[in-house]
Write a structure and sequence with these properties.
The complex is a heterodimer of chains A (465) and B (396).
Chain A (H helix, E strand, L loop, with lengths): L1 E9 L3 E4 H8 L7 E4 L6 H16 L5 E6 L10 H7 L7 E6 L4 H11 L4 E8 L7 H5 L2 E10 L7 E10 L5 E2 L8 E2 L2 H23 L8 E6 L2 H7 L12 H4 L6 H11 L6 E7 L2 E9 L12 H6 L7 H7 L18 H6 L1 H6 L1 E5 L5 E2 L15 E5 L5 E9 L9 E8 L4 E6 L12 E12 L2 E10 L3
Parallel strand pairs in A: 4-5, 4-6, 11-12
Antiparallel strand pairs in A: 1-7, 2-3, 6-7, 8-13, 9-10, 12-13, 14-15, 14-16, 17-18, 17-20, 18-19, 20-21
Helix pairs in contact in A: 2-3, 6-7
Chain B lengths: L9 E8 L10 H16 L8 E5 L8 H7 L6 E4 L5 H14 L5 E8 L25 H6 L1 H9 L3 H19 L13 H5 L3 E3 L2 E2 L9 E9 L11 E10 L16 H14 L4 H4 L2 E3 L5 H10 L8 H6 L16 H5 L3 H16 L15 E10 L2 E10 L4
Parallel strand pairs in B: 2-3, 2-4, 9-10
Antiparallel strand pairs in B: 1-7, 1-8, 4-7, 5-6, 8-11, 10-11
Helix pairs in contact in B: 1-2, 3-13, 6-10
The chains are: A alpha+beta (465), B alpha/beta (396).
């Protein structure tokens, strides 16, 4: 029996209080918050964080990665390769993208589910709309990863009893390549199209599962068409799983797996969960949890990540991060683009945060070195991945002059538990709050983009409690 | 295998130093001509008398042509050197060795930097293509790492630490005010220094050295020939250079309150010069005060203050112009300015003036000691190169 054997999620640190939009613009906004990816995050880095959480929760190693996003960091170039590299997975791992639409999430999920071996769907989205638009206030940024496998790979925690999909060609939302905001047709038009497609898919999925709607324990309904989602929600009654839009917004392609993960975070064995996704058609899956769900401890639950968010983000900073406001740059040269050959040579370091450990002295070198700093042994090193090791701040500074999309730059010298030191940039932190002795952990980020090259590397962030 | 030094084998017999500052009207070529010809005149030589040249510049030109073209040098050897902010000292060191080897009779070490044409704040430089994982911190940020670490280690609160750093900047501005060649020739009130806009960590604008243009040069001969050029030569007692393994950012035992490279180069220089108590034996020191916490830490690394006491000594004026051991009597990098390739030679220029009694009277140090020290640093805490020289007005 093939099914879900693990999952992980990522909700970024920042929240935008929608009232700040209204206060600044005299329009837009609303109540509650939306999740906002930091200036150094994109759908690839958020995908990495969700996947790390999935692998740390499950202890599994996937043989394929199916990445999906409606907001890819690169076109032409596969984005899943950076995820594969950041997870320190071997080159035998097959990493592919499906992208462009919110619906591509279904391709990643069904692709991973239908492939043999342990397969991971990673779905990430970063939603931007024009200032004052519903998409701006109602959108959100997040990622989720779902591991599929067979009983012999790991205990299956949930499996599908029935699945059905439907497809419709109509103009609901659409965006030309390069545009930052979607265009949306009149909502009432899309609503009628979606309801018909959804009713059809749900009916067939329940029939295949041989389950009556009344016997479903929870209903997840995801989709960017909020009017259709709201209308369809009536079928769920009090079984509807909170769609979290009030607290983090709607993370587009990532909403379906994020809400399923949220449901699984709180699920008991033998629960039946109807999962519906509205995106250019409808997807309906009837999931059943197993006894193994009781033993699955998420490394970080959706709820805990939502709770630890910071709503200190100002609207003007949000607009700057999203490219709507250009600030006066520092009187400093633009950063150099990374070179492809040097990045290729240091893939283990740059992407996987793998250093070298001297076999004789035990000294850990970050970045990896061939000659030991302790004793001078040459080429007697073993690889050591430090991405998941917590560290402590030895000293720090705040750089008001360095190039940054969001100055100032916080820099910390950190000592890892068990040895190893690194000077890192720090992120997701208030510069005034940094202290010697603070605990940190590593996170995969996009340092900057220069001449069309995203410079991915690791930063430190406050250690989650 | 051992390092032997070349104590009293070579001497400086002439020096030149342009004013440092924002020279919108001069290029590197012009400053090289000015510094070289001032040094020729000082030594009483013609350009044709110089047998070989060592040019230090970090980014104002490549190859010996950077010097031979503006000076119209006729087919003589010109070496072009770079060793980050210690570039000027590196030119001097190699020139001295060439004379000591007997290869040449008369040589020139000259350094230059034209920084103010870039249009950027602070220092910039081009690096080879990289994997993008190198630190992007600016120079003030890397040196500002010293401040919280030093304060933490020695139990100083933030206010006291700021007061110490401010006192160092105030002192160097006060000295620079007496120096007509300095970039900044005004005393600056402590409140102004302490209240200046932050650049990195606790460091404000006034904690940073001046970004400037300038050039400085020295004419070097064998010690036994020195009196043919001047009655008051400056003998080279020690030259040391230390390039570290750059493991500060990798090695948890490094605590960001010291420069190991400086300690190594100071120990070597004192050995060559026969110095066992620098604080009492040296008349003056020019040190690499690129940022105020650098000068603070250097006082301990160079052995001018006991461990953990430099902050107290700085506060009580031990390193003032009229203090126990005057440090940066010409204003230092802080006030004289820091045109990279020229700075090491500029430091020697102040020793040249002070030890020969030729500094302007208002800043001439009244001392019966005959030794001066220069210290020049390149890089950042935990990953740097360090140079120390000792020069003296008497043989032996």
């Amino acid at each position: 029996m093939r099914g879900i054997i693990g999952y992980g999620t990522y909700v970024p640190y920042y929240r935008l209080d929608r009232a700040k939009i209204t206060a600044a613009m005299g329009a837009g906004g609303g109540r509650g918050h939306r999740a906002v990816a930091g200036y150094d995050e994109d759908t690839t880095t958020m995908g990495v964080e969700a996947a790390r959480n999935a692998l740390r929760s499950s202890g599994l190693t996937p043989s394929s990665i199916w990445f999906a996003t409606a907001n890819p960091a690169y076109l032409d170039k596969t984005n899943a390769t950076a995820i594969q590299a950041a997870l320190d997975l071997p080159q035998q791992t097959w990493a592919v993208d499906s992208g462009g639409s919110a619906r591509s999430a279904e391709a990643a999920i069904l692709g991973a589910r239908g492939t043999s071996g342990i397969s991971m769907a990673v779905i990430s989205d970063l939603r931007t709309g024009n200032p004052t638009s519903n998409d701006e206030s109602g959108g959100g940024d997040a990622a989720a990863a779902v591991l599929f496998g067979d009983e012999e790979d790991a205990p299956v925690i949930a499996y599908s009893l029935g699945l059905a999909t439907s497809t419709g060609e109509f103009l609901d939302r659409y965006r030309l390549p390069g545009e930052s905001a979607s265009r949306i047709w009149e909502e009432r038009f899309g609503e009628q199209a979606y309801i018909a497609l959804a009713e059809d898919a749900i009916e067939r999925a329940l029939k295949e599962a041989d389950i009556a709607l009344e016997d479903v324990d929870k209903v997840v309904i995801a989709g960017l068409h909020s009017r259709a989602v709201r209308s369809l929600s009536k079928i769920a009654g009090d079984k509807l799983v909170d769609d979290l839009t009030g607290r983090i917004g709607n993370p587009g392609a990532a909403q379906l797996p994020l809400l399923v993960a949220s449901a699984l975070d709180n699920a008991d064995p033998e629960e039946i969960i109807l999962c519906v996704h509205l995106a250019d058609g409808a997807y309906a899956s009837v999931l059943r949890t197993t006894d193994a769900i009781a033993d699955y401890i998420p490394f970080s639950t959706v709820e805990s990540q939502i709770e630890k968010g910071s709503d200190s983000l100002d609207y003007n900073l949000y607009l700057t991060w999203r490219g709507f406001l250009d600030r006066e740059p520092p009187r400093r040269p633009d950063p150099d683009r990374p070179g492809a050959p040097p990045a290729f040579r240091s893939e283990d370091w740059k992407y996987a945060f793998v250093g070298s450990r001297d076999r004789s002295s035990g000294a850990i070198h970050l970045p990896p070195m061939r000659v030991s700093m302790d004793g001078g042994a040459v080429d007697d090193m073993e690889r050591i991945r430090m991405a998941d090791t917590p560290a402590t701040i030895a000293t720090f500074t705040v750089d008001y002059l360095a190039f940054s999309l969001s100055p100032p730059t916080v820099a910390v010298v950190i000592d890892f538990d068990g040895g190893g030191r690194f000077q890192a940039e720090m992120t997701d932190v208030d510069p005034d709050e940094v202290k010697i002795g603070d605990r940190v952990e590593m996170t995969f980020r996009r340092l900057f983009t220069a001449q069309g090259i995203h410079n991915y590397f690791w930063k430190a962030r406050p250690l989650a409690e | 295998m051992a390092s032997h030094g070349i104590k009293d084998q070579v001497a400086i017999v002439g020096m030149g130093c342009t004013p440092f500052g924002e020279h919108w009207d001069k290029g590197a070529d012009d400053m090289l001509v000015d510094a070289a010809h001032e040094a020729y005149a000082s030594a009483g030589v013609e350009q044709d008398d110089i047998d070989a040249f060592w040019l230090g510049t970090m980014g104002s030109g490549v190859s010996g042509l950077t010097l031979s073209k503006p000076l119209q040098i006729d087919y003589k050897p010109v070496s072009r050197l770079e060793n980050m902010c210690a570039t000027g000292s590196e030119a001097f060191r190699n020139a001295c060795y060439a004379v000591a080897s007997g290869a040449y009779d008369v040589v020139m070490a000259i350094g230059v930097e034209k920084l103010k044409d870039s249009g950027y704040s602070g220092l910039t430089g081009s690096r080879p293509p990289s994997d993008g994982t190198d630190s992007s911190l600016t120079a003030p940020a890397t040196f500002s790492l010293l401040a919280p670490a030093y304060a933490h280690k020695n139990g100083l609160d933030d206010e006291t630490m700021k007061e110490v750093l401010t006192r160092i900047a105030w002192k160097n501005h006060k000295n620079g005010a007496l120096n007509p060649r300095a970039q900044f020739r005004k005393e600056v009130a402590k409140e102004t220094i302490a209240g200046s806009p932050l650049v990195a960590g606790p460091l404000g604008i006034f904690d940073c050295s001046g970004v400037s243009d300038g050039s400085a040069a020295a004419v070097i001969v064998r010690a036994e020939d020195a009196h043919r050029y001047t009655d008051k030569p400056l003998y080279v007692k020690a030259l040391s250079f230390s390039s570290g393994p750059a493991t500060g950012a990798l090695d948890p035992s490094y605590d960001y309150t010291t420069f190991r490279e400086v300690r190594a180069s100071a120990e070597e220089a004192y050995k060559q010069a026969g110095i066992d108590d620098p604080r009492s034996q040296i008349a003056m020191a020019e040190v690499h005060d690129c940022f105020t916490p650098t000068e603070l830490v250097l006082m301990e690394d160079l052995g001018f203050a006991e461990e953990g006491t430099a902050w107290k000594e700085a506060l009580n004026g031990a390193f003032d112009l009229d203090g126990d051991l005057p440090v940066n009597p010409d204003g230092g990098l802080k006030s004289f300015g820091h045109p990279i390739g020229a700075s090491g030679l500029r430091m020697l220029f102040e020793c040249w003036l002070q030890l020969r009694g030729e500094a302007p009277p208002e800043r001439q140090i009244d001392s019966d000691k005959t030794l001066g020290l220069t210290h020049n640093l390149g890089g950042q805490p935990g990953a740097c190169v360090s140079f120390v020289s000792v020069v003296g007005s008497e043989l032996g």
